[in-house]
Amino acid sequence: MPAIDHRWLGSIRLFCDLPAEDRHRLEMQCRWRRCARGEQIFNRDDGDHDVYFIVQGSARIVNFSDGGREVAYESYRQGDFFGELVALTGESSATSAIAVAGLDAVQRIRPAFDAFSHALEPAQRDRLDRLWAQRHGL
User: Do 60 and 37 touch, CB atoms closer than 8 A?
Assistant: First the structure.
């Protein structure tokens, strides 16, 4: 698996304005995650509280009916991120995520995301707040 490159993190909307040294510091607290098409990224029953930043590929947030039918809620592509709601609230996810196309993502574990979000410059924190509010209809 390739090493994380801070230039790739620059393709994430949230990080595009961060100086390279800040992206490098961030990458040191992340895990690289590669998923094949159709692979489950996380399951709602996993207790996953991580945030995923998509460097390449796409993902879909889904749930399954009692009969096993997939119900799609949101789709995300390169430059997007997901999982921030459970990372910020600490609550369990009510959904699952699957890779739609081959996915390369940076996975940020929750304690590191908490520290990261508090250490953001005001402009980046405002951007995170706006993206979060926009995504959740606030």
Answer: no
